[in-house]
Structure formats: C-alpha cells, structure tokens
Q: What sequence folds into this?
C-alpha cells in the first residue's frame, strides 16, 4: 500500500536558522503515526512544513501521490489536510459555532459532518455559544480537532494534543483520536510517550532536525534503550 | 466528554457586553452634570459641543475604522492612510468643481445638478480610494509582509509621493480649495433656537449608518467571520483552507475606500488642501491607539472620545481665554490618560 503522506528529506529554515536538516516520514492510510523526539527536535516545524507555513527549501512532500511542497497553505488545506496546531490556535472572540462555521469549505459541510464531530466530542454541542476564550484547555483542544474535521479530511496533523491537560482529559482525548482514526489518517506529534505509544501504530523519531529512526510502535516499546536515548525516559 | 464548564461563564460576557457603553456613559454623565449645574446652557451644549464633536468624530471614524482593521488583520501600520483620505477629498472636490457648467474651464461633460455632482463625487472618491488602496496592497505591501520595518518605510514614503502628486496636478495644486456644498445641504437648520449646519447632520448620519452596517457585516456574514478570525490569527485561517491574501487585499481596499469616502465628505466641509491627509491622520492614529489597535469597536469609541474632547476643549479655550495650545494638546492628553489606565487601548483584550 502506498502511504498517503510521504515526506522525503526535507530541509527547512526559519529566518537564518536551519531547523530541519533531513526529515523523512510516511504515514499509511488509516493509521495513527506518531512523531517523537525531544523539545526542539523539529516535530512542530515538520508539521508546519507539510502545511506550507514554513515551506521546506529542499526535499519533497507528497500527499496522496501529489507533490504539495511549494503550494500555498490554503491550497494544501483544501486538498484534505486538517491541521491542529500547537497551543490549539483557538480564536478568542469567536464562539464554538462560529469556529465550526468558519471551517466549512462547502455549504452544508457542518451538517454533513456534524454527527461525526458531535459523536467524538459531545460536549461541544453544549458549549456552542461560548467564546473561545471561555473554554478550558481540554475544550479548546476538542474544538481545535473538531474544526479540522468539518471539511472532508483525509489526513489530520495534530500537534501536542495532551499539552497542558489533566490526565483524565488526556484519556478522553486518546479515545477520541483513536475513534476518529477510523475516518482519517492521523499524524501525531506528542511529548507524552505513554499516550503516543498507546494509540499509534507507527513512529518516526526525530533528533536535532533529522529522522533518526522509525518503525512500528510495538518494536519501539520493546527497545527501551532507544526510548532512553532519544526521549530520555521510558 | 464530561469536562466541567468554567464557573465564570456568566460573568464575562456581561462585562464584555457593557464595555462599549462605558465611553458614551461617561459623556452622558458629564453632560448631565453640566445640565444640572447650569440648566440654561443646554441648547448651547448640544449645538455648540455635542453636535460639532460628533461631526468631527464622524470624520475620524471613517479614517480610523479602516486603519484599525488593516492593522489588526495584516499588522500593517499604513502611514499613507491619510493620503487616501486626501485623495478621496480631491476626487470629490474635482467632481463638484469641474463638472459644474457654471465653472469657467469646466470639463466637456457637465452635470447641471449640484446635488448629483456631490453624490458622484462621493462615489468616485470612494472608488478611486478603494482601487488605489488595493493596488498598493497587491503591488507594494504584499512583497513586504515578512519585513514590517520596510512596510513602515514604504507607506511613509507613499505619503510624500501622494503629496507631490497632488501638488503636481495642475487642477489641484498646492493651494487650499474652498469647500463646495451640495445645494440640498447648504442650509442651516434651527435646533433648540440655535442654527446648526445641515451638512454636519448629514456627516453624522452617514458615518453612523456606515458604522452600523460594517458592524453588522462583521458580526453576521461569513466574510465578517473570516476577518474577525484573521485579526486574531491569520495563519490559522489560512491553514483552514481560506485564501487569506485575498481577504487582505479586500480589507485593505475597503479600508482605503472608507478613508477616501471620509475625505470626500470632508471636502465639502473643510475644503481640500495637500496637508489635510497628514492633519487628520494624526487624529486617526490617536483614535486607533486609544481604541486598541486592530479593534473595530475601539475605532468607533476612540473617534467619539477624540471628537468630543476636541470640541469640548476648543469651547473651553474660547470661553475661559486659556491658551489655545491647550485645545490642541487635549487629544494627546486624553490618549495619555487612556493609555495610563489601559496600556493596550480601551478594547484591547491582550
């Protein structure tokens, strides 16, 4: 099976800083792939490079067989890639409903996808009239994922969904991401190794802007030295 | 997922909803106090301070609404915004003057009705402003979004370009041109036993209607939703599959058109002169800073505050014989006070 997302040897600069030196990764359709690595390893920049927010200078990124690096961000999103950024990027002054309406790409998207979204995150229905700034961290995270699911999405890039959340909320988030992976491929950046290893099938290990290792999650769990070496904790 | 709702849900929106009413409330309070202390002064208060203040506020609003939205959405501080105000003014004045069959050396095409000339002037002014604004965004600002300092220098440079342009065009020149009022708005009305120019009332009504229409569009339409979201995080809006650059051009053009319309209506009130752009832009910047950079409601509230403060202090200087410098300094003084109390401006939530 060909992967839905293929990143090949990209190099990305932000201003004068060389952030990604040699990052490659693939995500198979219908799976959850985790991108692991320490702080500053280049995980967030890799997601931003895929989205065209920090376009890579060399290398190629293919989505469903089509080369997407060089396209503008909104075009990349329109191909069916949903993006849930670090810190969620919830609009402070927009209500929950307004977030979802804004995310519609075609008229009626929300009606078509509403059932899926509200079955994953039933709480959002109750919060419809609240502003982004009035939501808790967990609610904002749900909204950020829901917003990315409103249009037809084949690939979802999620950056640090567990960041700053209470353990009980993290559990709920894990269940929701597992459930939504039945509908879309997920690439997950996660510091919380326990969460990442529990829900993803494959992993890519980043260190200092390079992909240093990859394989199945089962293999990684059996290799504590590797985890110790790149993540510093088992 | 059963996540407990934050307990402050009820308190916050109420406070936020009341915030826009604070400034009008303060003014009502001041006026009420004056009325109680000196009941006989109220016709003078209304036609001498309140209405002239609102007239100024109307012009300031048209200039600052676009300035604030443009800054909020694209982080561009457009120093040439006043130049578009001036350009609009000159376009309107030209239509009023050169389409007039009674004017020696009029254009081959003339329009007999002064009222129609006036309306055409407003439309032409606004359209030229919007077109020039969009062109500036596409050709000059767009390549510089990643280099904000260059943008400031660029728009500052444009001020000189427009100034030179106006002085070079023979029909415009360096001299100040007297205002041409449309016949339908030349009369002054009798209000509370005093005279008040009908043109000022027209200015106030136009500005208030525009403010309401824009507010409704921002609140209720999809494009308004996109703009409000873009003001907060334009990169995220783009990552949701929306062509933010096109929204940028649209808002820049709209803001420029609004400024030019402001200049066009001001032209029949204050006349036109090359320095008018810079002169009014200074107030627009003060208005925008007071209201909170990037906030539309802030621009409206700030315009109201500065317009009234200006006429109030003018009046005070006239009545008490204080040095006139106080009147000029009053707006900056208001800004200083507001910024001491709320460093980010009245409507800034950061």
A:
């Amino acid at each position: 099976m060909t992967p839905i997302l293929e990143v090949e040897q990209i190099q990305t600069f932000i201003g004068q800083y060389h952030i990604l030196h040699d990052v490659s990764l693939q995500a198979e359709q219908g799976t959850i792939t985790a991108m692991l690595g320490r702080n500053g390893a280049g995980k967030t920049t890799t997601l931003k490079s895929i989205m065209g927010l920090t376009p890579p200078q060399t290398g190629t990124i293919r989505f469903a067989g089509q080369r997407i690096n060089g396209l503008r961000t909104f075009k990349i999103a329109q191909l069916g890639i949903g993006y849930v950024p670090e810190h969620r990027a919830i609009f402070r002054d927009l209500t929950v409903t307004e977030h979802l309406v804004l995310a519609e790409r075609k008229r009626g998207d929300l009606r078509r996808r509403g059932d899926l979204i509200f079955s994953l995150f039933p709480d959002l229905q109750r919060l419809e009239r609240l502003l982004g700034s009035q939501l808790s961290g967990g609610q904002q995270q749900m909204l950020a994922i829901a917003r990315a699911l409103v249009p037809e999405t084949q690939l979802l890039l999620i950056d640090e969904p567990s960041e700053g959340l209470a353990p009980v909320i993290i559990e709920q988030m894990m269940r929701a991401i597992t459930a939504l992976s039945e509908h879309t491929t997920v690439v997950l950046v996660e510091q919380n190794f326990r969460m990442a290893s529990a829900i993803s099938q494959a992993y890519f290990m980043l260190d200092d802007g390079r992909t240093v290792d990859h394989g199945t999650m089962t293999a990684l769990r059996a290799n504590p030295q590797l985890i110790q070496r790149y993540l510093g904790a088992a | 997922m059963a996540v407990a709702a934050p307990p402050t849900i009820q308190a916050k929106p109420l406070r936020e909803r009341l915030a826009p009413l604070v400034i009008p409330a303060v003014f009502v309070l001041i006026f009420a106090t004056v009325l109680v202390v000196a009941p006989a002064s109220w016709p003078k208060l209304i036609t001498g301070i309140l209405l002239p203040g609102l007239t100024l506020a109307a012009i300031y609003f048209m200039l600052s609404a676009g300035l604030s939205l443009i800054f909020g959405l694209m982080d561009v501080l457009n120093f040439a915004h006043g130049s578009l105000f001036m350009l609009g003014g000159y376009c309107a004045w030209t239509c009023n003057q050169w389409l007039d069959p009674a004017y020696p050396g009029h254009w081959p095409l003339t329009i007999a009705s002064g009222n129609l000339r006036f309306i055409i002037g407003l439309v032409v002014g606004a359209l030229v402003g919007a077109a020039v604004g969009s062109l500036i965004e596409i050709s000059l600002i767009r390549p510089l979004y990643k280099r904000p300092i260059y943008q400031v220098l660029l728009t500052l440079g444009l001020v000189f370009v427009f100034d030179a342009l106006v002085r070079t065009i023979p029909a415009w020149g360096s001299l100040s041109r007297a205002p041409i009022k449309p016949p339908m708005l030349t009369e002054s009305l009798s209000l509370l036993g005093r005279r008040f120019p009908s043109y000022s009332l027209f200015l106030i009504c136009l500005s208030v209607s525009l403010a309401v229409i824009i507010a409704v569009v921002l609140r209720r339409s999809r494009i308004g939703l996109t703009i409000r979201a873009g003001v907060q995080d334009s990169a995220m809006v783009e990552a949701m599959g929306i062509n933010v650059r096109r929204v940028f051009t649209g808002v820049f053009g709209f803001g420029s058109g609004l400024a030019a319309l402001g200049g066009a209506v001001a032209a029949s009130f204050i006349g036109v002169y090359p320095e008018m752009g810079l002169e009014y832009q200074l107030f627009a910047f003060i208005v925008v800073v007071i209201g909170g950079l990037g906030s539309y409601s802030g621009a409206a509230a700030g315009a109201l505050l500065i317009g009234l403060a200006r006429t109030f202090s003018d009046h005070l200087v006239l009545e008490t014989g204080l040095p006139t410098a106080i009147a000029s300094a009053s707006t900056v003084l208001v800004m200083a006070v507001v910024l001491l109390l709320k460093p980010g401006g009245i409507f800034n939530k950061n």
Remarks:
- The first strand of chain A starts at residue 5 and ends at 14.
- The interface with chain B takes residues 51, 53, 72-74, 77-78, 83, 85, 89, 91-94, 98, 101-103, 105, 121-123, 126-127, 130-131, 133-136, 138-139, 142, 147-148, 151, 169, 172, 176 of chain A (CB under 8 Å).
- The mean pLDDT of chain A is 91.
- Chain A has one domain: 5-90+151-231.
